[in-house]
Amino acid sequence: MPLHSFFYLLWVALAERKGRVLAAIGVVAVTVAVVTVSLSFGFGFLYGAIQRAEALFPRSTIVVKPRSLDVMMFRFNAGALSDEVVERLQRLEGVSTVARQLSLKMPLRAEGEILGNQLTTDAVVVGIDEQFVARDLHKPEVFHYDPLSTTPIPCVVPRFFLDMYNLAYADSMGLPKINEAFAIGKTFTLVLGETYLLGGGDAAAGQRGEVLCRVVGFTDNPFLLAGVLIPLNHAKALNQWYRGNLPSSYTALYVEVADLGKIDEVTSAIRTLGFTAESQRESIEKFLFVARSAIAAIFLFAALLVGIASLSIVHTVALSLYQRRGEFGLMRAVGVTKRHLMALLIGEAAIMALAGGAIGVGLVFLGGRELEATAGAWLPRSTFIPQQIFLLDWRVALGALSVGVLISVGAVLPLFWRVISTPPVRMLTETG
């Protein structure tokens, strides 16, 4: 059959049954739209949440803390994290770095201003090794200790604090919400030796002072939620100023393991030394299981809708084929082969599938981008919310379009085969 004749027959077949063709295109469009939404949301928001969780809960980091001893209502440390312990941990096979954390051992109060509103609160400040927060700095800010410098102390704030302020405190107190860009570079006063609630702290120490701090970054690290972070040597210097040369131990150590295969070995060695070793491996695995289960549930729901749509397409095509028995019988009688007839039927189904698929994908892409822009402006900037809600790109479009074509053509192939296998005389006779 000449190619122009083939396309002419396709055009005639589609033009003569506009109502049923439009109905089939509509079913395919809805089906492809559902598939597109499922794919874009699954690989956008949920996959983004998985990636964000893996970044927030690094599997290669082990938190080392002293064992605790409970006596009645009190809890005491049963060991101390000293520089000697740090050296022993650094010598363990598989350990790349050991970062130290040291709390400021004094009463603290923070005073600052947000858009003309004066705020005062008790504060918790900890010192941390510089390399552990290097990736959280807002360039070109720096985070290091210089005893000769008169500039404010650089500090990194847990982003969780900003979330808490914006999501709860600002609304309840009628204060303006702020973003990271506003906070970077802002300064606040840290009052040493006094608290907001209790006033003066350790009377024996008798020290009181004020230092200026400057925000140089925000961190998502879940290990660093204990308080505002300053360089470790700053914390050592302030502790020495307030308490003298009293011995002090680190509150926590963060052991970075270069080879994930040695996590269990390093953890066991740390516990042998008499310390607790905590890893986020189990937490992240549970989170990943829940997220992947959610993705599977969405895809299962989409598959259910695809199955229902397939039945609708089969019903529509079956009715159309039944009404066209005489046409097919006449075509076979005048010499159209089974192969050509099958090609015509598949061509009709493919055209309807492509048209419906293009409409479905186009509607989702237009609506999805608008919805994402609206949601991006409405959703708060939160530690655990990924920035991307829908993944709208050519891969999602091609995947959804392919699914639409496959179900539209694949679901009706048995019907087509049944038609071309029926003898022409029988089709003409049944038509009457």
TrEMBL record:
Domain of life of the source: Bacteria
Chain segments annotated as transmembrane: 21-50, 294-322, 343-366, 396-417
Subcellular location: Cell membrane
GO cellular component, one term: plasma membrane
Keyword Cell membrane on entry: yes
Cleavable signal peptide: none
The keyword Flavoprotein is assigned to this record: no
Pfam families xref list: FtsX (PF02687)
Organism annotation: Sumerlaea chitinivorans
Domain ABC3 transporter permease C-terminal: 300-424
Entry's Gene Ontology molecular function annotations: transmembrane transporter activity
Name of the molecule in the record: ABC3 transporter permease C-terminal domain-containing protein
Keywords, sorted A to Z: Cell membrane, Membrane, Transmembrane, Transmembrane helix
Record InterPro entries: ABC3_permease_C, Macrolide_Exporter_MacB
Membrane topology value: Multi-pass membrane protein
Family per similarity comment: Belongs to the ABC-4 integral membrane protein family.
